[in-house]
Design goal:
There is one protein chain. The protein contains five helices and 16 strands. Strand 11 and strand 12 form a beta hairpin. The longest helix has 11 residues.
């Protein structure tokens, strides 16, 4: 089951790990920073990703991605985890140069974040709390086999429960909707020829390569 329909959305959370907020010199957000990507930005594991031609500084960001399994609005934090039906890892590819310009001018982030192939996405694993501990999930990002990011969901500023509660105040969450839940510290640049591998022993390992 892919679980996604053409109606599904990709919600993304920025600035959700304290060490990452500090490495980008961002102020600590008081509520989740939310942006979106079209579903067409997804890249399945194993595929090649073209380096975007409209920017120069392409950054990797490994993220835990959860998928919504049932419809809900104004969801309570206490019930929020029951809305997750599957979990995987993805990468939030970001043109940091364009994002910096957009931030300085107070402009939206689409050119920096929501371009073609900007959302590599692993294969979803069914969410079983007995097998996947979302409160203590270790996950990594390797570039050309070298460890660059080593995160744990324990360090999230806003929990999965809080993210689902906040999103569902604004949108009616529906089956197939996905949430990229933010990246830990260690982000950095990608070059043509690089491989990017995201991994968690509770979820699996997924890899992509960057080509011209
Ligand atoms: Zn991100």
């Amino acid at each position: 089951m892919t679980g996604s329909t053409n109606m599904a959305r990709i919600f993304c959370i920025g600035q959700n790990y304290i060490a990452h907020i500090k490495e980008l010199s961002n102020p600590m957000p008081e509520k989740p920073v939310i942006f979106m990507r079209p579903l067409s930005c997804q890249v399945p594991p194993g595929e090649e990703i073209h380096f975007p031609k409209h920017g120069k500084l392409l950054h990797y960001e490994v993220e835990v991605v959860v998928r919504i399994g049932k419809q809900g609005q104004n969801i309570n934090e206490e019930e929020a985890l029951s809305y997750i039906d599957a979990v995987t890892l993805g990468a939030d590819l970001t043109l940091r140069d364009l994002q910096k310009q957009a931030k300085e001018k107070g402009l939206p982030w689409e050119e920096a974040k929501s371009f073609e192939q900007s959302a590599p996405l692993g294969e979803f694993r069914p969410y079983d709390p007995a097998e996947i501990n979302l409160k203590n999930l270790n996950f990594t990002c390797k570039i050309n086999g070298e460890l660059r990011q080593n995160g744990n969901t324990d360090d999230m500023l806003f929990s999965f429960e809080r993210l689902i509660a906040e999103l569902s105040k604004i949108w009616i969450l529906s089956p197939g909707d996905m949430i990229y839940t933010g990246t830990p510290s260690g982000v950095g640049p990608l070059q043509i020829g690089d491989s990017i591998e995201v991994e968690s022993d509770q979820i699996g390992s997924f890899k992509w390569s960057i080509i011209e």
